[in-house]
Amino acid sequence: MAAVNRVFAAQLAGLPVFGPDGESIGKARDLVAGLRLDHLPPRVLGLVVELATRRRVFVPMLRVTSIDPNAVTLATGSVNMRQFHQRPNEVLVLGQLADAHATLSGTDTRIAVSDAAMEPTRTRDWVLAKLAIRERTGRLGIGRRRSTLRVVPWSDVSGLGLADLSAQPQGAGQLLILFDTMRAVDVAATLRDLPLKRRHEVADAMDDERLADVIEELPEDDQKDLLAYLPDERAADILEAMNPDDAADLLGELNPAEQSRLLELMEPEESEPVRRLLAYSSDTAGGLMTPEPVVLPPDATVAEALARIRNAELPAALATMVFVCRPPTETPTGRYVGCVHFQRLLREPPAELVASAVDSDLAALRPTAQLAEVTRYFAAYNLACGPVVDAEDHLLGAVTVDDVLDHLLPEDWRETGLHDLPGDTAEGPVEVDRA
């Protein structure tokens, strides 16, 4: 391994990981350390590396040949492709150790861990030799400054044993800083790797909008568990912040009493579209659709349409199509006129009316259309988004291709990752002992 004296976990997180020939393996997400019963620094066992398929695997430190500011390089050989599972004597440095509360040895000084640094030993092992800490001075108020960050030896800190970390409440500041650089789907994968207590602490610290985005990317059982943990009022706020179709899918998995209680706690204007979606089976166009597509009246201009689909918060699939309807333009709308593909909008003069660019020949889905019919519809017309219209020609919503794929994949696809990609199977060499 190239000579490196000290590497902080937060600096390592997110670095690309390459094989010996420069091939991309994935990204480093965390360090795995083995906790000890004495006060000696824990040995760093390896890295948690996230593959392109979002599966997380364990890479022993002996496989790492170099660490530099821009990348981690592995030695020649095979990596065990089995999903990483934390063992009882192990700690995730960023996932569990960061934000942990402890004390300076031999004093009553309370501190919080901000980061941990690993250093090499003469035996080629790596240990968590140093901790970046801040003194805990109570709740910050107006005019008060955060305590100074300082680096101390591991042995200068008490209260970081496995039992201590399992019992104490932790903050989540460092993890949230790390999550700011990650997509919601990657944050969801990280949360699933954390112990339940730590997962709850992170959920408590997240704002509603971010937590809603992350919950949408979790497997069904994890969604229900996290929603059940949250106080009812906050759970209702989270459901309001979710996309209506995702909120309806989640509520549809709850028992009728829980479903009714949470719907009553939601604001009426937020719960109403969710209630409409719950009236349809989840494997129909009505159950798959979102009730919030881009809808404009016929006298709107192309410039207005482009401004609407330029909204950065609009999902990419919904931005591929604008629906033209008679007022009202909230779903269920007035009479559905047709749709305008975004590529057509790019070719039209900005002052032109959208009515002049309408595709009135594209067939619409009925809300009762089954998943197989919806799938054939998207394949036949090469669409990313399609209208759902009732028998009276009212636009009810739009189905997007990502929701179709979500229902076509196996139920546990978020848990297992895309394991069937060529070259990425669960088969591999015997896992290197990291106990």
TrEMBL record:
One of its GO terms (molecular function) is magnesium ion transmembrane transporter activity. Keywords: CBS domain. One of its GO terms (cellular component) is membrane. The keyword Glycosyltransferase does not apply. It comes from the Bacteria. Residues 289-356, 358-416 form the CBS domain. Residues 416-435 are annotated as: Disordered. Gene3D superfamilies: CBS-domain, MgtE N-terminal domain-like. The keyword Cell division does not apply. Pfam families: CBS, MgtE_N, SH3_actinomycetes. This is Magnesium transporter. The lineage of its organism: Bacteria, Bacillati, Actinomycetota, Actinomycetes, Pseudonocardiales.
